[in-house]
Amino acid sequence: MFRLKTIPAFAALMLATTGLSAPALAQEQPGEGKEIIMAQPTWDTGWFYTEIYKQLLGELGYSVGTVLTLDNPAFYQSVAFGDVTLWVDGWFPIHNPYKSAFEGSAEIIPAVVSGGAIEGYLVDKKSAEELDITSLKDFKRDDVKAAFDRDGDGKADLVACPPGWGCELTIEHHMNAYGLNDHLNLIKAGYPAAMADAVASYETGSPILFYTWTPNWTVNELVPGEDVVWIEVPEVNLPEDMADLTDAAVREGVEGCVNDPCMLGFPANTIDAVVNSAFLEENPAVRALLENGEIPIADVYAQNAAMNAGDNDIEAHATAWIADNRDMVDGWLDAARAAQ
Questions:
Q1: What is the average pLDDT score of the chain?
Q2: CATH topology of domain 31-116+270-338
Q3: Are 171 and 143 spatial neighbours (Cβ–Cβ below 8 Å)?
Q4: Residue 21 CA to its chain's centroid (Å)
């Protein structure tokens, strides 16, 4: 979209030649002259829809510079203070522990991605069948620990979450609640590198145990039900700030789970925007855009798979997605422009 300049003479010329009034121009570009500081998380599976919204905000006239990559605590503190405007990667309820940092100063707007998001633990299918692994509690067995012990410390190795991620807190809670600290070694290094190593091990026939979430490239690379299986927790035991979500941690119809319904141990999430409240009050167009927009989870899966295959031009992915869905996107933009 062609962006109007702020040069008075140019604006006057446009008014004269198009017949548009100044209010009409303002409505077309409600963000003209306004800056947005966007953030994105340290996991790259969310960068696709971050880029989509960055480009759409640009179409509304907002100036969006380089997107900041932040850990969860840093973002939620920054959005509360107004140092950062927003991100579209709030995972709730897994991010509930961070609410105290921003409640009253920033607002959650659902839902950025449709179709829900699940989390849990997976084991390669061959090992699950040969060793009869259906639950995390099976990793207390000596034969199972030995099979999954890659560094010789006597514990099974689990690809977990890096420090600062919401899932890190829940996994740590699980280790304590199920008495697994003496049986599982949590790999908390950079997740992409740790998972790439796990995939390489799988391809050589070695057993693997890992945590993942959807949408994520991992479930394209290692397909649940074919290559790996979701295993269950011994019982649903959640951190205190999610204790009322027990039912949401058991989900029906999970493809590739050892049972149906599947006791994943993590409540199903929604992926939501989190935006500074003061900014929202002054920019109803942004609220309307976020309230009307929703990206199908299947499209995120497809982009994540392409990215994992080596196509890392996320800006081009987002541009192509917007072009392919122009009629739908124009409806979101029309709603934003009407919210003045």
A1: 91
A2: D-Maltodextrin-Binding Protein; domain 2 (3.40.190)
A3: no
A4: 41
